[in-house]
Amino acid sequence: MSKRSVADLKIGERAVIQSFSDQLMSLKLLEMGCLPGAQVCLQAKAPLGDPICLSVSGYCLALRKSEAATILIDN
């Protein structure tokens, strides 16, 4: 079974960040508070599904779906 990513979450679903699949993107995400072990919750999606709004580290973070797909989760 392949790992799930934040892009796979349904609205209101929570998960814990495990790792990242893209090393360069991970630096950007780490700076924005997406740390391994942090809990994330999908708050909303744009009408066409991209971008998405996550709740992480106490604030809302908007990401492109392609960026969210690099955040691997365990729930």
Automatic annotation (TrEMBL):
Residues 4-75 form the Ferrous iron transporter FeoA-like domain. Gene3D superfamilies: 2.30.30.90. It comes from the Bacteria. The keyword Protein biosynthesis does not apply. GO terms for molecular function: transition metal ion binding. Pfam families: FeoA (PF04023). Keywords: Iron. SUPFAM superfamilies: C-terminal domain of transcriptional repressors (SSF50037). This is Ferrous iron transport protein A.
